[in-house]
């Protein structure tokens, strides 16, 4: 199991998050962002998933710029 908590961005869009795992095998970390950028239906949300490279497990990973206006293969819309 991998655990973390929900975070909100600062007014400048920055965030920091950490988590832990209790498995004995390697993990495949990823970040899920729920937002309302370019949703097709009113009241819906878009869920975007971003992989975090394994080499950053236990280290700082600077994502820099995340373009939520571009749909990716792992995006889905929920209503």
TrEMBL record:
Top-level lineage group: Eukaryota
Main location: secreted
This protein's record includes keyword Signal: yes
Keywords per UniProt: Secreted, Signal
GO cellular component terms listed in the entry, alphabetical order: cell surface; extracellular region
Compartment(s) of residence: Secreted
Cross-referenced PANTHER family: TRANSTHYRETIN-LIKE FAMILY PROTEIN-RELATED, TRANSTHYRETIN-LIKE PROTEIN 15
Family per similarity comment: Belongs to the nematode transthyretin-like family.
Protein name: Uncharacterized protein
Organism of origin: Caenorhabditis japonica
